[in-house]
């Protein structure tokens, strides 16, 4: 390999094998340094403000702080900066200290965490809930303890990486079906030699923003006796009359065996949860490796989430504003001629194409003051790279229009091809 970043993609380094186990570091370092010289490296710029509609961040190319329009944060409803949430966290922090300081099965399980599990179970209309330190660890923990070697995880091909990783940790076979295709799912399930299968989908797909075709998918699962898991990470507090997610939106909550969610999106915090029947949750509590071998959620985090549930239960106006903003943004981008796929949510992809074009467009929007997700392999196919815009309740129409205008200028500067 040579030093020119334009001649290589990240995928090559992930798949690279040299004579020495650490050979890849030297080649990747050269690739990275050339990417910085070309101003293509626009990741890991430390923020110096809260994740709201405008943020200040360090710019390595000017060695200074710069203000950006923020369309990259998952703080969809803005709860992370609510004064009453912050006060609740501060009060709890003063009482319990900075962290749980133990695994949950030892001394890391606090009264406030127990209340959160009870509250989440009630919110989701399920018998019981289990709180994990992150959303990633929730998916990894649930799949790795439910599935065994010889079982089959049947995943939508665009399902989150954590679902794939959980199935791999379990030693289960992995089968994929075409994105949101009940017909292909049926062909996959029909071909299996076991009924020990778990079908995994997302409520809102995290890179495409579309909704799972749950009614049709559930019908297929029932026909073949497969269990179904839904990851509602990007749909909790947003979809459904009560904010329970896409399963509630379609009226099929009672047909879901396991529902996963995160606290790092609409809740503006950190952590994950699984809800199911009491017996299944009890088994997970003593079997999910990412739960029993991780430090527990900090008590002050749990307290902040409980306060958010109090606020949300009484007032869903932020959710309604978010949905209005998402509709406005999708319409504006479509009118401007961008390919945004089939998104139906606040997750709005703007498809770019090949990786080199993404790098050039990413550099330009960054220079113009737009902070957006620059997404390529391994998060998506290297040929289906995109900008991912996260629309939030706190964005104004003027900010959304400014975002669209920056994108129009950047795409005009780098037309088609690579």
Characterise this structure.
The chain is α/β, with parallel strands linked by helices. It has two domains: 42-71 and 317-413, Aspartate Aminotransferase, domain 1 (Alpha-Beta Complex), CATH 3.90.1150.10; 81-314, Aspartate Aminotransferase, domain 2. It is 41% helix and 17% strand. It has helices at residues 10-14, 23-37, 83-96, 111-123, 135-146, 161-170, 182-191, 214-224, 246-249, 278-285, 289-292, 299-314, 317-335, 355-367, 397-413; strands spanning 54-59, 64-71, 128-132, 152-156, 173-177, 197-202, 227-231, 258-262, 272-276, 347-353, 370-375, 385-390. Helix 3 (83-96) packs antiparallel against helix 12 (299-314). The longest helix is centred in the last third of the chain and has 19 residues, at 317-335.
Topology:
Blueprint: H1 10-14, H2 23-37, E1 54-59, E2 64-71, H3 83-96, H4 111-123, E3 128-132, H5 135-146, E4 152-156, H6 161-170, E5 173-177, H7 182-191, E6 197-202, H8 214-224, E7 227-231, H9 246-249, E8 258-262, E9 272-276, H10 278-285, H11 289-292, H12 299-314, H13 317-335, E10 347-353, H14 355-367, E11 370-375, E12 385-390, H15 397-413
Helix pairs in contact: 3-12, 4-12, 5-6, 7-8, 13-15, 14-15
